[in-house]
Specification:
This protein is of the alpha/beta class and 354 residues long. The chain contains twelve helices and 19 strands.
Length: 354
């Protein structure tokens, strides 16, 4: 079955602006608008429109397709006005995108607070490609429709602050809302792009701060465990999700001393040469796991482990039978990858280290 593609927050923002421009300057109400993106044209449905003689408010619902993230389904609002005295401009953050129009960011779009990102400190968190898309599409509209005045445009994401709590924005140095992202304008299912871009940003921040040692964690719980053991700066702790191979190789290429922190299931997959530990790239296999563990356990231990149904169940059996395994696995993975390894139980206790 072919998976459905979606579109980025950058595309949603651009489409909402174009929809409002069409109403305000052409008097045309469209159910769908077409926007120019780096890979061609994209048609996007308009969610809502409200207008008067001097302004228009439009919205688009961000659609992640069959690979949705936490921004899937959020409403992105564009307000376009001919009048700079609109109330909504008072507390907005201006961003210089063009000489042809004024642009602002309001509620729900984060502000950058740390160096190392692709956006300067103090600016709204709209990445370079969405900025380019907005600039090109607005300027194209103004030229094609002979609009001589400079419209005032503001973007808002009403639930941006809430949604941002489920992202790594605060850790990366983006406060108050989500980032407006996108490189091609389209979200491709099972794409690595969004997460690996976040890993890149985190590593760049660590490099900018001249850290030598960093911790890569598969998730928040293993990261919290590592923080109790290692007295590193907050920005030296980076969550890589399922992207084991990408995160480790990238960090080593940049010259960092890497400590990998994770729970048994992810650590075992990494040790068994899974480049990506997500279930999409391979389910837990007891047969493969037993084969891998055979050099580390005796026959009686392997027989007990063979009854495990899941990685969590395997960890429970190992703990219950006091099988001395996790230090051996940590040492094996550490030597193979030339990194340090910390293994935490699903309850957050340190159970193995290299």
């Amino acid at each position: 079955m072919k998976l459905r593609e979606g579109f980025t927050t950058g595309s949603a923002s651009t489409a909402a602006i174009v929809a409002a421009l069409n109403v305000l300057y052409k008097g045309r109400v469209y159910s769908f608008v077409s926007i120019k993106i780096p890979v061609g044209l994209l048609k996007i449905q308009v969610n809502s429109l409200f207008y008067s003689n001097n302004f228009c408010i439009s919205s688009v619902i961000k659609d992640g397709g069959d690979d949705p993230d936490c921004t899937h389904g959020i409403e992105i609002i564009a307000k376009v006005s001919k009048n700079k005295k609109e109330e909504w401009l008072k507390n907005a953050h201006e961003l210089k995108l063009s000489d042809k129009f004024y642009f602002f960011c309001g509620k729900g779009i984060g502000l950058v607070t740390k160096d190392g990102l692709s956006v300067k400190v103090g600016e709204p968190a709209i990445n370079p490609m969405p900025r380019k898309m907005i600039k090109e599409n607005v300027e194209l509209f103004l030229v094609e429709n002979n609009v001589l005045d400079k419209p005032y445009i503001i973007l808002e994401v009403p639930k941006g602050y809430e949604v941002a709590k489920h992202t790594l924005n605060e850790r990366l140095g983006i406060s108050g809302g989500i980032s407006i992202l996108g490189t091609t304008g389209i979200v491709k299912p099972i794409s690595m792009d969004a997460y690996t871009a976040t890993i890149d940003l985190s590593l760049n921040i660590a490099k900018k701060k001249k850290f030598k040692d960093i911790v890569l964690s598969f998730g928040r719980q293993s990261e919290l465990g590592a923080k109790k053991i290692l007295n590193f700066h907050e920005d030296a702790f980076i969550i890589i999700g399922d992207f084991f191979r990408y995160g480790v190789e990238k960090a080593k290429e940049m010259g960092f001393n890497v400590t990998l922190a994770g729970q048994p299931g992810k650590i075992l997959k990494a040790s068994m040469d899974y480049d990506n530990t997500n279930v999409k790239f391979g389910e837990f296999s007891m047969e493969k796991t037993l084969q891998f563990l055979s050099p580390f356990c005796n026959s009686k231990e392997l027989e007990k482990i063979s009854h495990a149904k899941t990685a969590r169940h395997l960890a429970e059996i190992i703990q219950k039978n006091n099988i001395k395994l996790w230090d051996k696995i940590a040492e094996y993975l550490g030597k193979k990858e030339r990194i340090s390894v910390l293994i935490f139980s699903y309850e957050g206790d340190l159970i193995g280290r290299s």
